[in-house]
Amino acid sequence: MLSKLLQTANLFHLLFFIDSELAAIKRSAGCPHCNGSLHQANYMRQPRGGPAGLPEEYCLRWSLCCGREGCRRRSMPESCLFMGRRVYWRCVVLIATALVQHRSESQSVGQLSKLLSISRKTIKRWFAYFTEVFGYSSEWLRVRGFLPATVSNDCLPVNFMEYCIMQSQDALSGLVLCCRLLGRGG
Ligand SMILES: [Zn+2]
To answer: How far is the CA of 63 from the centre of ligand 1 (A)?
Structure first.
């Protein structure tokens, strides 16, 4: 079951590894404003919803800062682990929303909220975001361009997650692919 994946440390390990790579690529490209060299200016976040005992470094949000006097602007590498400023891990937001979309009639949002230890209000907010906003977001539109027409724009993120899982060997790799595509925008 998808919710079990959220207790799998390896999922977070893989996503952290991808984020580290994305940061290294961004850093080697230099400052997008002045071409100056970029330095690390990472910070710790306190993301929720993952298994207990994850290494602290996984909570690191990679961030870069231009070293050139007079510029010093910050550059944020893309992230598979985090979804903007949301306090939950990206994979948690995706799975919780997918479970609400795919729930049986007998299963309430309250039951899912208990299962995942996430408040009903938060789950409903994510659901509303994916139903009303996500389909038009630049994040999704960038990914959409790489996908076959068979992936419907309805019922996101479930349709997209199912596509990613079908392209992969197992659900874990599928979820990693899903976070990677959304995080990098293609
Ligand atoms: Zn600069």
So the answer is: 14
24 CA distance to ligand 1 centroid (A)? 17
Q: How would you list the strands of the sheet with 64-66, edge to edge?
A: 38-40, 64-66, 74-75
Closest CA to 1 of 165, 154, 182, 120: 165
The domain segmentation of the chain, as residue ranges, is 2-184
**pLDDT exceeding 70 applies to what percent of the chain?**
99
Three-class SS of residue 82? strand
Rounded Cα gap, residues 81 and 162, in angstroms: 19
* Closest residue by Cα to residue 160 from 111, 109, 101, 108: 101
The larger pLDDT score, comparing residue 3 to residue 53, is at 53
Q: Compute the distance from residue 163 Cα to the ligand 1 centre, in Å.
A: 39
75, 64 in Cβ contact below 8 A? yes
Q: Are strands 38-40 and 60-61 parallel, antiparallel or unpaired?
A: unpaired
pTM of the model: 0.93
Residues with C-beta atoms within 5 A of ion ligand 1: 31, 33-34, 36, 66, 68, 71
